């Protein structure tokens, strides 16, 4: 089940610390402040990202999580993930290892294109 490209998810998740800080900062404002009204929609966005992350964790545990390949944009199965790396298996590009940082996303191992037809020996 492809949700969206991996870059989109990475950018969305990099906003969550800023959202959390903004929500906590808004809570310290006086209750009569108009800025206080922003805490509820920002909290809804943060909870939505958290629920989507939980859904992705459930799909990853069952080996059904797919993202768009950063090279060819086709559905790529996520074979493993940890705090700093995603391992994708793209049907077009082959296996990829993608390193993530707080603001960066880079492909660490470019796979060669898989041959369309295997030669018979």
Distance between the termini: 36 Å
Gross geometry: elongated
User: How much of the polypeptide forms β-strand, as a percent range?
Assistant: 25-35%
Q: What Rg do the Cα atoms give? A: 19 Å
SSE run: EHHHEEEEE
* Strand arrangement across the biggest beta sheet: 1-2-3-4-5-6
Helix tally equals: 3
Question: What is the helix fraction of residues, given as a range?
Answer: 25-40%
Number of strands: 6
Mean pLDDT: 84
Describe the sheet with the most strands.
6 strands, mixed
Extract low-pLDDT stretches.
none
Number of domains: 1
Structural class: alpha+beta
Question: Can you describe what's shown?
Answer:
With 121 residues, the chain is α+β, with helices and mostly antiparallel strands. It has one domain. It has helices at 6-14, 16-27, 39-61, and strands at 2-5, 66-68, 75-81, 85-90, 94-100, 105-109. It has a six-stranded mixed β-sheet with strand order 1-2-3-4-5-6. A hairpin with a 3-residue loop joins strand 3 (75-81) and strand 4. Helix 2 (16-27) packs antiparallel against helix 3 (39-61).
Q: Could you give a short description of this structure?
A:
With 121 residues, the chain is of the alpha+beta class.
Question: Which helices and strands occur, and which strands form pairs?
Answer:
Blueprint: E1 2-5, H1 6-14, H2 16-27, H3 39-61, E2 66-68, E3 75-81, E4 85-90, E5 94-100, E6 105-109
Parallel strand pairs: 1-2
Antiparallel strand pairs: 2-3, 3-4, 4-5, 5-6
Question: Which structural traits does this protein have?
Answer:
121 residues; alpha+beta; 6-stranded mixed sheet; 36% helix; elongated
């Amino acid at each position: 089940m492809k949700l969206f490209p991996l870059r989109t998810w990475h950018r969305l998740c990099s906003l969550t610390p800023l959202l959390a800080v903004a929500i906590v900062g808004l809570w310290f404002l006086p209750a009569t402040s108009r800025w206080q009204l922003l805490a509820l929609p920002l909290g809804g966005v943060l909870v939505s990202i958290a629920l989507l992350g939980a859904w992705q964790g459930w799909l990853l545990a069952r080996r059904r999580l797919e993202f768009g390949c950063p090279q060819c944009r086709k559905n790529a199965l996520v074979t493993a993930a940890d705090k700093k790396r995603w391992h994708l298996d793209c049907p077009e590009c082959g296996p990829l290892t993608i390193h993530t940082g707080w603001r960066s996303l880079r492909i660490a191992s470019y796979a060669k294109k898989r041959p369309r037809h295997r030669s018979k020996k």
